[in-house]
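pinned: reference chain
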Amino acid sequence: MIYLPVSHIEIPIIGLGTYKIKGFDLCYKVVEKALLSGYRLIDTAQVYKNEKDLGESFKILMPKFNIKREEIFLVTKIATYNHADKCYDSILRSLEDLGVDYIDMVLIHWPGVKGLKLDDKRNFEFRKQTYQELERAFNDGIIKSIGLSNYTIRHLEEVFSYCSIKPLLLQCEFHPLLIQKDLVDFCQQKSMVFQAYSSLGTSDLASTKKLLESETITNLASKYSKKPAQILLKWAIQHNIAVIPKSTNEAHLKENMNIFDFVLNELDLLSINKMNENLHLCWNPETVF
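pinned: its structure tokens
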């Protein structure tokens, strides 16, 4: 496993995404296979409604595999309905559900607030208050670091104008069809880790095929004797981008982790870069005031 050092912490470059993985039986099965495959970062969110199931799984599996709490990097995210004065209490609930004394990193999931229109100027004030509540949680020792998700450069510049504790990570959509170079460069200039979601596409079959079945990716998979998903993940990692692929399939979990035994050459990296269409497969936060 490669770790990305930033400030006082080290973040595994690959982790397990858990979006849409719900129910104790499924969470237990996936976490079990992921831990056995070497995953040590688990990414969840309040809105995923699986924190309690994950917590119950950790309670059984970590002793079973003799894994200490400090060996797991646990990430959750503040839901859009838990901004501002609801933020701190929501972290306490996440701690209880996850069955831990601290969370390694908490992100603001989205720069907008549930119930407000995208262009509502109050979005700024709410997310500022939320960030300040995260700083309070950090100072109280219940979270170890602060991150952001789906923030644009404009949103990030706002944070750096008022924060007393700097954010250490930005999680955003990133794949060959959406290479947000300016955003990635901004994060690197600010010593933030950039972490990609939807590296392999989304639950939408058409968009996923556009990545996994593109001629460029399939040709490279053949060249390197790897699966298309492994090519996509390796491409991101070679750009120093952290990834959190999601899978409930044991074989895919292992394959997604098995990407450290080859290197894409510069010409092949460039050929993937040329796939960029500035195409959002998910949502576009540029519209949030």
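why pinned: The beta strands are 3-6, 9-12, 16-17, 41-43, 73-78, 105-108, 146-149, 169-173, 193-197, 242-243. The chain has a mean pLDDT of 97.
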